[in-house]
Amino acid sequence: SEQMAAVMSVNVSAWKCQECKITFDSSRRHSDCISRNHSLTVCKAVKTKWECIECKVSVNVFDRDLPESCHACGGKGWRQLPLQGKARTAPMERDLLLPRGEELPFLNSISIPGRAAGRDHTREDVDPYSALNHNVAG
């Protein structure tokens, strides 16, 4: 939850490939290197998450070995993110946009120019049967 969102790095068990010259904790990449007869060593590494400033693609990085450029857009700038969730930043105007528009509490609270807001304040017609509604003492 909120504590997890604040975690910026974690110590993990990883593998270092001598041929690929990278550190990773992915079992898929591990089996790929094994199938190519690469020499792997088990190590401890600090895992962090970084985001490209240009295109917002995120990558996991081990021991602060940042890529030279973004694999998606070629950008050179990186900024660190929490390992889970998104970075907490001040909301921008676009973040406050409501997809369905502004919620209004009552339909009659909409003001139409030339008319009073809310119900029309016209008198109801006099009930022709009102004389029949008297109480009869009996």
Which descriptors would you attach to this protein?
single chain; 138 residues; alpha+beta; five-stranded antiparallel β-sheet; 2 helices; 5 strands; 10% helix
The number of distinct β-strands equals 5
- Main structural class: alpha+beta
The coarse overall form would be rod-shaped
Report, as a whole number of angstroms, the end-to-end distance. 72 Å
What fraction, in percent, of the residue positions are helical?
A: 10-25%
- Give the mean pLDDT: 80
Main beta-sheet strand count, sense and barrel state:
5 strands, antiparallel
Number of helices: 2
Beta strand %: 15-25%
Radius of gyration from the CA trace?
33 Å
